[in-house]
Each structure stands twice: as C-alpha cells, then as structure tokens.
Amino acid sequence: MIDRCYNPDSKDFKDYGGRGIQVCDEWRDIAGFVAGMGAKEKDQSIDRLDENGDYEPGNCRWTDALGQGEHKRNNAIVARLGSQKHIAGVWREAGIKESTFYNRLNAGMTPDEAASLPVRKHNATAVIDGEERTLVEWAKIAGVDSATMRNRVKAGIVGRALLAPPRSRKISA
User: What's the pTM value of the predicted model, to 2 decimals?
Assistant: First the structure.
C-alpha cells in the first residue's frame, strides 16, 4: 500500500500514487494501520470502496479476490434497481453465473431483467401419476436416454405417455 502510493519505482505506482492515491497519516505507521483495519483473514487483501479514493478509514475493507474484482476501475458500471453498481456485483448479488448474466445482456436484456429472471433448472422434472421425478430418472424408468425424454417434453407429451417404450426401427434386408 505504501510502496504503490509513494515509490515511483513500484510497478503499480502509476495506478496509485501516480493518480494521486494516498495513505492517510495514521495508517503510514503499522500500529496505526492495524488499529484502524484490524486483522485480515486468510486469502484477504485490502480493498478501497471508492477506487479513486485514498487508503483511509471508511474507504477500506478486507475482502477476497471476488470482492476485489467488484471495485476495479475497468469494471463496467450499470444501473440496477435504481442505483449504480459494478457489473460483477450485479450477477453475484443475483446468484447467477457470470456467463448466464452476460448471455442475457448480449440477447438485449437490461441489467435488471438479466439479473431478475430465474435460472432455468437443468434438472427439469415431470409429474406422472402424482409423482415428481427428474427427466433423467423418468428416462431410466422408460428405458430411453435423457435426450429422448427431453425431446418428448419439448414436443408437449405429458403424463404416462412420456413413459412409452422406444420405437423399434425396422431394418430392411
């Protein structure tokens, strides 16, 4: 922190001290820093909440690599639920995969829409005679592969008809 802010020979100086980022006076002494920040946990590093602000109380926290990623200067800012947020924080907060979120944005959805839609269940289920099972389980019972079962569901087949035996193919001599 001190090195990147005050040592022009530091590889990171241009992104910190070179931009005017400073360390508050009380944190330039290790005892003052520890008193202000407390102990860090394993796999954590210091993070500035305002990436353009100084290293000082109220602007710093201990966080992991995911938290660090939310506060990078090159991270896109988007509108979400009426406020500005780092894009990485939006998909994490929504509990969806990054790829799902970006695929939805690329399909023309707004960040609110992309983060709000439920994620499609990969373990789709069907109810037959009041019993719910996954399509993979029903496929095993029917003696067909799971792709065949998914195709039957997509074709609108429901109930016991899903369990129809596979069609036999006649081979001509």
Answer: 0.50
